[in-house]
Specification:
This protein is α/β, with parallel strands linked by helices and 378 residues long. The protein is built from nine helices and 19 strands.
């Protein structure tokens, strides 16, 4: 389909993280002309830049992309540098068509003729586009953060690195989910005075219930694959658990708990119960929002400026997403589970391709379990 009047590529995938790489693997195997665009200078950079002590709460056994097991002890918990190295190796091993340093600033056009604009003025035309920018879009902080005095250091978890990178004194961590708990515990064990603000009291799940890893149970029972609109999926979505770090461990490390942070003035942050603290630093573990305003295709953004998505499809034919939280199920944004969504989307794309493209029959199951390291038993 290449040529002066036609698209440059049959499919352009924006983002070469785990979701984009898994999709690229399936599409290249099907013979589809695909190009993956990665903003960073190298594959895996988004993982490499995370905080130093970050470890996955999924064991290596459940962290593989299709066709390549995650290296190391199957029941170890990989660090962020191991993940970054694995993704870079994956792209190289399967010779995936990734173009790094490609910063996409705008997507326009419509079905069959999308125009992908890069910083610097280059434009790439594509018959289909997949937005694979993942679950970590734009770091979000509450509006009242702007009221905090500049002398108080503020970092989002997206920029946090290590305890000694923050000035001496009390630290407030806002957000009591997994990232907030990991960072609060690290800070406390480093001898810092730590306050942790929770918007809601989360359900807690141990890392190894009944002697087996939590994700062994979720995979064996297939609860990890329960669609978001199913009874199980709705219950999980309504109360995402905190995994592996219970409140008792945080209390034992002398972390002080507070309810939701409500407002701030100067060097003082107040909570909904009226209590206030004066930290030297605030770590915002407040998550991310999708930053999709660079997509200017008419009719695809909702009122919040995010792509309107139904199981990977948008209202415009030929424009898809992959790798978003709960795009289909709990595994949609997880490293070792996104291959299922990638498999389905690749089958959908190849079935819709014109006659000049090779097509493959839709697959009814996921990639063989022994190839992705998801064996059902130890």
């Amino acid at each position: 389909m290449s040529g002066s009047t036609g698209p440059d590529h049959d499919v352009v995938v924006v983002g070469a993280g785990q979701a984009g790489l898994a999709l690229g693997y399936y599409l290249t195997r099907a013979g589809v002309d695909v190009l993956l665009l990665e903003r960073a200078a190298h594959v895996g950079a988004s993982w490499a830049r995370r905080w130093d002590s970050l470890r996955l709460f999924t064991p290596a056994r459940y962290d593989a992309l299709p066709g390549l097991a995650f290296p190391g002890d199957a029941w170890s918990y990989p660090g962020k540098d191991q993940v970054a190295a694995y993704l870079a190796n994956y792209a190289a091993r399967f010779e995936l068509p990734v173009r790094t340093g490609a910063d996409v600033v705008r997507l326009e056009g419509d079905a069959g003729d999308f125009r992908v604009h890069l910083a610097g003025g280059e434009m790439i035309r594509a018959a289909r586009v997949v937005v694979a920018t993942g679950a970590f879009g734009r770091p979000w902080t509450p509006p009242f953060a702007t009221g905090i005095d500049p002398a108080v250091v503020q970092v989002h978890t997206d920029d946090y690195q290590r305890p000694d990178a923050l000035p001496p004194g009390a630290v407030l961590v806002v957000g009591g989910a997994n990232s907030g708990r990991q960072i609060a515990l690290e800070l406390a064990r480093a001898g810092r005075s730590v306050h942790l603000s929770e918007g809601a009291r989360l359900r807690e799940l141990p890392q190894r219930p009944l002697g087996r890893d939590l994700f062994w149970w979720l995979t064996a029972t297939r609860a990890i694959h329960a669609p978001g609109d199913s009874l199980v999926g709705r219950r999980v979505r309504a109360n995402e658990p905190a995994i592996g770090i219970p409140r008792r461990d945080l209390r034992a490390a002398a972390v002080t708990f507070h309810p939701r942070a409500q407002d701030a003035t100067g060097d003082t942050v107040r909570f909904v119960d009226g209590y206030a603290v004066q930290p030297v630093a605030v770590v915002w573990a407040t998550g991310y929002r999708h930053g999709d305003t660079w997509v200017t295709v008419p009719g695809v953004l909702d009122e919040a400026g995010a792509l309107a998505v139904d199981d990977g499809s948008t209202p415009v034919p030929g424009l898809y997403t992959i790798g978003r939280s709960w795009q289909r199920d709990r595994g949609s944004a997880l490293l070792g589970y996104v291959h299922r969504d990638a498999d389905r989307l690749a089958s959908r794309i190849t079935s819709e391709c014109p006659a000049s493209l090779p097509t493959v029959p839709a697959r009814t199951g996921s990639w063989p379990l022994d190839d992705v390291g998801e064996l059902p038993t130890r």
